[in-house]
Amino acid sequence: MPVKVKTPEEVARMRVAGRLASELLDHLTPHVRAGITTGELDDIAHAYQVDVQKVIPATLNYAPPGHSPFPATICTSVNHVVCHGIPGEKKLKPGDIVNVDVTVIKDGWHGDSSRMFYVGTPSIQARRLVETTYEAMWRGIRMVRPGAHLGDIGHTIQKFAEGQGYSIVREFCGHGIGAQFHEEPQVLHYGRPGTGLQLAPGMVFTIEPMINAGRAAIRGLADGWTIVTADHSLSAQWEHTVAVTDDGFEVLTLSPGAPAPPH
C-alpha cells in the first residue's frame, strides 16, 4: 500500500485531533494515583471524550483482523505489560509505572499518543527505564526531515536504548495515521541508517518505542490483546504523532500539559 501524503489542510485537521489526544492525557494525569482502578481511569477518559471533547474513542470496539473487539476507550499497560493492556479491576499501587495510550477521532481524523505515569515514587530502575524510553522517542523524532529514511529513526532509537542496557520490542512498531487508525508506513524502532522509506513533506506517522528492562521477548495473554514481557521485566513506552514538514518535523500531539522534550 502506498503512503498517504497529507495536504496542509489535512495536517491542520490532524493537528486538532492530536491536540485533543494530548489534552485527554492532561485530563487523566491527576487521576493516575494509588488506589484507582484502570477501569475507573477508562470511565473518566470515556466521559471526557464523549461529553467534553465530542470525539469518538478510536480504540473502543476496534477489531483488526484476527482480534476480538477491544473493550475500552484507552489502553492501560502497567509495569511488565508492554502494550494493549485492557482496563479493568486492577488497582494501581505505589511504585507502579503505567502507560496510558489514547486515540481520538475528530471530524474523521485520528490523534494518537501515549505517556508513562508514575504512581507515587518509582524505583530508581523504573524511573531510569521511563526516562530512557522518553529520550529514545525524542531522539527518533529529531531524525525526521525530508530526505531522511525510516531506518535513520529506528537506528537512532535502537542505538540509544541498547546503549543504556535495554532491549527493543520488535513485534510492534509505529505506523502511518490519518483518516485511518493504522496506515502505511510501518515505523520500526530498530534498523540501519539510510534504509527504508525516504521521508517527504506531508507524511504523518507515530513514533512509539516499547523498551524492556530485560530481554526483548514478549508473549500475549489469553484475552487476545494484552502483551507482556516474557521475563516479567518492566517495560515502558511513549508515543507522539509526527508530521514531516518542508524543513523538518512537527509533533502534532502536544498540549499545555505535555512533558517537555528532553534537552
Give a short overview.
With 263 residues, the protein is an alpha+beta fold. It is built from four helices and 15 strands.
What does this structure look like?
The chain is 26% helix and 24% strand. The chain has a single domain, classed as Creatine Amidinohydrolase (Alpha-Beta Complex). Helix 1 (8-28) crosses helix 2 and helix 3 packs antiparallel against helix 4. It is built from 4 helices and 15 strands. The chain has helices at 8-28, 38-53, 124-141, 150-163; strands spanning 56-57, 74-78, 81-83, 97-106, 109-118, 167-168, 174-176, 183-187, 204-207, 210-212, 218-220, 227-229, 235-237, 240-244, 249-251. With 263 residues, the protein is an alpha+beta fold. The protein is globular and about 45 Å long. The strands form 5 sheets. Strands 1, 2, 4 and 5 form a 4-stranded antiparallel β-sheet that branches. A 3-stranded antiparallel β-sheet has the order 3-12-11, with no helix packed on it. It has a 3-stranded antiparallel β-sheet with strand order 6-10-13, with helices on one face.
Q: Descriptors for this entry?
A:
single chain; 263 residues; alpha+beta; 4 helices
